[in-house]
Amino acid sequence: MIAPAKPDLVTVNIDGKEVAVPKGTNVIEAARLVGVDVPHYCYHPKLTVAGNCRMCLIEMGMPAVDPATKTPIMDPATGKQKINWIPRPQIGCGTNASPGLHVRTNTPLVRDCQQGVMEFLLINHPLDCPICDQAGECKLQEQATDYGRGYSRYIEQKNVKPKRTQLGPRVTLDDERCILCSRCVRFSKEIAKDDVLGFIDRGSYSTLTCFPGKTLSNNYSLNTVDICPVGALTSTDFRFKMRVWFLKQTFSLDAESSVGANTTVWSREGVIYRVTPRRNDEVNDTWMSDSGRLLFKQVKADNRLAGIKVNGTESALDIAVNAAAQLLKAGSVAVVGSGRSTVEEQFLTKKLAAALGASVSLVSRVGQGDKLLISADRNPNVRGALVTGLIAALPAAQLTTLAADVDAGKIKTIISVGEDLAAAGLTAAQLAQISIVYLGTHANATSAAAKVTFPTLTSFEKSGTFVNQQFRIQKFVRAVPGSAGANDDLLVLSKLIAAVSEGRALSPRAPFETSFDLASLWTQLAAEVPALGTMNFANIPDTGLLLDATSWLALPFVEGETLHYKPAAPQPAPAKEPASPPTSTPA
Amino acid sequence: MAVIPLERKPLTLSERAYLPQIASGLKTTLKHLFAPNVTLEYPEQRPAIPTGYRGVPTLVKDPHGREKCVSCQLCEFVCPPKAIRITPGEIPPDSATAHVEKGPQAFDIDMLRCIYCGLCQEVCPEEAIFLQQQYSMVGYTREEMVNHKDRLYELGGTLPDQHFKWDKKKAAAEHGNAH
Closest partner residue to A242 among B88, B169, B172, by Cβ? Predict the structure, then answer.
């Protein structure tokens, strides 16, 4: 991204209200600052300006100056400088703020223009709202009621176009609904860097299509569905599943990599229907990957662990905690934490390891970064483990030391907080040789081999925080209730800590005493973790907080460059980007 | 409090004889004995249902037998007691009504919740749900009191259609102004 210039403020006048905005801010964004809505379709704050929908027409004027002497011409009636209004309307998205710019958005001319544009857009638009997935979040619906004329004068036949074109594996196009705003075309070209979409034919025959032999199949294709202002591009997965007005929105995070893209989870009555990106100008702008949108399927997966098991038989929580504590108190214990656990869980894992006097290892997951919103580190919260002090060095992909210790008989019991030990390099023979206590969400080789299994919650069913690659601590909150038989990781961990530290001498500050409710856990976190000193869960803003990362800058992090992140190695400064002003890319 | 003594009027002769009162009572009795009946022998006899009566909500088909509901879920949204529950679904592309694209997979109306307000009928953009003349819903279990999709179509039957919106749409797509 282009580094935003120093905000060079200019004063513009919008509907009589003066507002100071950075130079180059377009009229739509400037008007938003004074609470004036300039309707638009094709303009998107994170894409280039196309100016083709003509919905944002405004009246524009500049203070009059004498051409010869350059002195201001005063209006004798008001005593102020005269404004020369341009007699024809201008598009707001393509008009940038300049000193003294005057804008009118509520004159009869502007209203006439808006009604005219709405009428043209609706001429060939089908009366599809009852079956259209966009209904309820459709700009055309909203602006037809706000700025339309309210009835149609069109008596001719409407155009008919294809209704179910598959543009790619995840995107279905309804051509009739398309208003040719070209947001999807610009997104594919500018953000996804996969230029596959374009318009063919002319006039009312114009149609969005993929270039010959290509499909819209990149991992960011569903963002075109999000930015489509009408119901033309629809998600094949979400199509016809549920009306959006029933869905509850919960702020969450994309847990697929250390980027930590901000998301909104849409659920109804405990069922998640879709996940969409949430705007965070310092992390993911308004985008997220398609793969991150599918993560919610794990909530209802068939291999979800359903009940607490001790030696293969169903058990109650307290009995299982005691059984696990017996195994752990026998000594020779190793703790396997997880880069997928939340900061709070990692804090409790550290407490548990301290109570047991056990070593802690984490498992790293490294994949290919896509330079956009999936980084090479596929664990969302390795930096959380560094911040809480669970680990001091970066984890390896295989637990070779642990495996060697098992073979040498030094380790008799392993407690794994959500990590599959078989995937991390322990053989079936090694798993059979030791006792395993497993906290996890889904069945795998480790849960099958475990003596005690605690089913826990996925990130959609619990609240917590992740620290992303920028050392930005971000929170997510519970979208749906936990599945039957699953317990909160924090509850299980704090019960285990209490059970294993029973009868031991507690230090004056009672370090083994923990709580599983977030508010009191955060009091403890703030007291014991220096980087989180002034925080609590409630005051972390929705867009996250940057932590002081200086202690960890020397570590060889695996991430490459992604959107809004540069690896810290070349320059000593951490990847801190100043809040970019809400401007469009300069046209 | 002051006590005001009142003199009770003595009864007249006719009042003392009782007979005029008995006669007037008998007159009323005899009048109703021979007057036409106002009650019905329910359930053998059924009342005539006035037009505009709001009976049990039902789903209707158009004269070509197409289910009119497109599962837009506006009735589910507007229903004050939340009696309606719809599972939307896609109409398969090989179906005769594939051009409608969307229809209900399941459509349940819980008649223990329904308050017969008629808002579902009012809000329906496809004229698919009507409160018709059926007024008696009985059942032995709660489950029996939930009308599922099949039962709703059985109760609703077919109603005349003014618009044939989707037929027009299909005709336009086939030979009208398709590109």
Answer: B88
| Cβ pair B70:A131 closer than 8 A | yes
Q: Which residues of B touch A241 (CB under 8 A)?
A: 88
Nearest-Cα distance to chain B for A216, in Å, is: 22
Question: Across the interface, do B177 and A159 touch by the CB < 8 Å criterion?
Answer: yes
Contacts of A243 in chain B (CB under 8 A): 72-73, 77, 88
Q: Are A314 and A307 in contact (CB under 8 A)?
A: yes
Categorize the per-residue pLDDT at A501 as very low, low, confident or very high, splitting at 50, 70 and 90. confident
Name the nearest CA neighbour of B126 among B154, B170, B162. B162
Q: How far apart are CA A459 and CA A296, in angstroms?
A: 9
pTM: 0.89
Distance CA A252, CA A475 (A): 7
Tens digits of residue pLDDT in A248-285? 999 999 999 999 999 999 999 999 999 999 999 999 99
CB contact under 8 A, A205 and B165: no
Closest residue to A130, CB basis, from B72, B90, B172 = B72
Phi-psi category of B131—alpha, beta or left, where left has phi over 0 and alpha has psi -120 to 50?
A: beta
**Closest residue to A245, CB basis, from B77, B93, B173:** B77
Nearest-neighbour CA in chain A from B102: distance (Å): 6
Contact list in A for residue B76 (CB cut-off 8 A) is 246
Distance in angstroms (rounded) separating the CA atoms of residues A242 and B72: 9
As a whole number of angstroms, the distance between CA A338 and CA A321 comes to 20
pLDDT value for A584: 41
| CB-CB contact of A263 with A292 (8 Å) | yes
A397's CB contacts (< 8 A; 6+ apart) are: A363, A364, A365, A366, A424, A425
Cβ atoms of residues A185 and A47 within 8 Å = no
* Radius of gyration (C-alpha) of chain B in whole angstroms: 29
* A263: enclosing H helix or E strand: strand A262-268
Give B61-99 pLDDT, tens digit per residue.
999 999 999 999 999 999 999 999 999 999 998 999 999
Residue A511 predicted with pLDDT over 50:
no
Q: By three-state DSSP, how is residue A291 classified? A: helix
pLDDT digits (tens, 9 = 90+) for A428-456: 999 999 999 999 999 999 999 999 999 99
Residues of B in contact with A245 (CB under 8 A): 77
Indicate yes or no: CB of B88 within 8 angstroms of CB of A241.
Answer: yes
In a mutational test of the A interface, the residue from B71, B86, B102 whose CB has the highest number of chain A CBs within 10 Å is B102
Q: Looking at this protein, which amino acid is placed at residue A417?
A: V
C-alpha distances in angstroms, A440 versus A314, A341, A489? 16, 10, 8
Q: Which of A124, A127, A129, A131 to mutate to test the interface with B (most CBs of B within 10 A)?
A: A131
In terms of Cα–Cα distance, which of A577, A549, A553 is closest to A563? A577
**b/e per residue A334-354 (b: at least 16 CB within 10 A):** bbbbbbbbbbbbbbbbbbbbb
Write the pLDDT tens digit of every residue in A336-395.
999 999 999 999 999 999 999 999 999 999 999 999 999 999 999 999 999 999 999 999
